[in-house]
Amino acid sequence: MTTALKLAEFVRETDYDDLSADVRDALKRRLLDAVGIAVPAEVAGPPQAVRRTVTALEDDGPCTLWGRDQRASPVGAAMHNTALVRYLDYMDSFLAPGETPHPSDNVAAVVAAAEFADRSGTDLLAGLAIAYEIQAELAWNAPVRERGFDHVTHTVVSAAAGASKVLELDLEETRSAIAIAATGHNALRVTRTGEINEWKGLASANAARNAVYAAMLAKHGVAGPRNVFEGQKGWQDVISGPFEVELTPGERVHDVMTKRYVAETYAQSAVEGVVELAEREDLDPAKVAGIKLETFGGAKLIIGGGEGNRYEVANRAQADHSLPYMLAVALIDRDLSLAQYDPDRIRRNDVQQLLRIVDVSEDPALTERFENGEMPAVIDVTMDDGTTYRVEKDAFRGHPTDPIGWDGLAEKFETVTDEFIDAERRDDIQALIRSIEDHKVTDLTALLA
């Protein structure tokens, strides 16, 4: 059986009734997290540019643009709403040895397709379970980072699968949707190397848009290459190398982490550690002589200088992918939230000076521990008088080994949305998501308009 057919059969055969109670609960928490982090992104420049682009092309449509008094096609809504979920870099992550995608990149695409098709909350959960499972399996078994492709190359496949489910495509239509997505929309890793710019926060939105469009093309009769993965010059030949997937109804959602801090995934343990150290020892940032972080290979590669200079930090996109910046500002402010990415905060002399004495190195033993499921970090802060303070972390609050439950997610949701929506609407959104199986998707999107 080809991989495309295997994925398509999984999409067709997986329904709400196949999901365990724990999987359903976890998916609802993923949905709440994605919706919450989208709200403060509404005022950011790049998502605003996406809104202007979408509405310039479409002045109306069947789907809600979250946070706006405007509507668009499911394709435009997937682009816009995914940009909101992804832009602030506060989204969830799946931790695989060679790849770390963000499964919440699928959420807005599946919601848009479900809103368009007027589906129920149970249909939505089934679509999300499929998307999360396929995203995780591709990340684990078919990493593409080392071959020069971005992780949203997986997202376009998983989101197309989730969208196909809620659009009720048949088997051949679903296979075509997956094939069109996997053939035509493979993204380059250059997005996250060198001098990073704002496309980093929008690449997954583009993937989500392409995923929904692929599903809509298949729905209306367009066929994709039947052997897209194993065929000559196909996905395995060019993009990933050989791989196999083992799919279960949504169980991979339990391996997804929740970000505690507004920071790139691999920084979470280190940031939590430096905040704990600064508070425990009451560190004076003006008297710090050096900060040394020993970390695992992926963190050194992506945000520690392996894929470009991480000491020249001038904008938000560069800041949230710079371990020197994140550790420096977290030590000074004893926090790493939205305020630490204000342009004036990024440019301030205290953090610009401190980040330049942050040293990041890979420890092979920590890399091995990461590949075995931890997210380790060892941080030494040396003061002007020669005193050195150390903190060691195995993981962080929000890691799959220490998950954040409903109470923690409700706190995060309320914190990030407090300035943007009133308490009554916050309560209504949380209550509806917790009982989403009793509602239609349009009930949710009405609250998000």
Describe this structure as you would to a colleague:
This protein is 50% helix and 8% strand. The protein has 449 residues and is of the alpha+beta class. It folds into two domains: 3-258 and 410-448, Orthogonal Bundle (2-methylcitrate dehydratase PrpD), CATH 1.10.4100.10; 265-393, 60s Ribosomal Protein L30, Chain: A (2-Layer Sandwich). A four-stranded mixed sheet has the order 6-5-7-8. A hairpin with a 4-residue loop joins strand 7 (377-383) and strand 8. Helix 5 (107-116) runs parallel beside helix 9 (203-219) and helix 11 packs parallel to helix 14. The longest helix is centred in the N-terminal third of the chain and has 21 residues, at 121-141. It is globular.
Tell me, rounded to a whole number, the average pLDDT: 97
Given the structure, what is the number of helices? Answer: 20
General form: globular
Strand order, sheet with most strands: 6-5-7-8
Poorly predicted runs: none
* E-strand count: 8
CATH superfamily of the largest domain: 2-methylcitrate dehydratase PrpD
Could you give a short account of the major beta sheet? 4 strands, mixed
* CATH architectural grouping of the largest domain: Orthogonal Bundle
Quick description:
By secondary structure, the chain is an alpha+beta fold. Helix content is 50%, strand content 8%.
Question: How would you summarize the topology of this molecule?
Answer:
Elements lengths: L2 H11 L7 H18 L6 H13 L5 E2 L6 E2 L1 H14 L5 E2 L12 H10 L4 H21 L10 H15 L4 H14 L18 H17 L15 H6 L15 E2 L10 H14 L6 E8 L1 H7 L12 H4 L3 H11 L9 H5 L1 H6 L3 E5 L1 H8 L5 E7 L4 E6 L12 H12 L5 H12 L6 H8 L1
Parallel strand pairs: 5-6
Antiparallel strand pairs: 1-2, 3-4, 5-7, 7-8
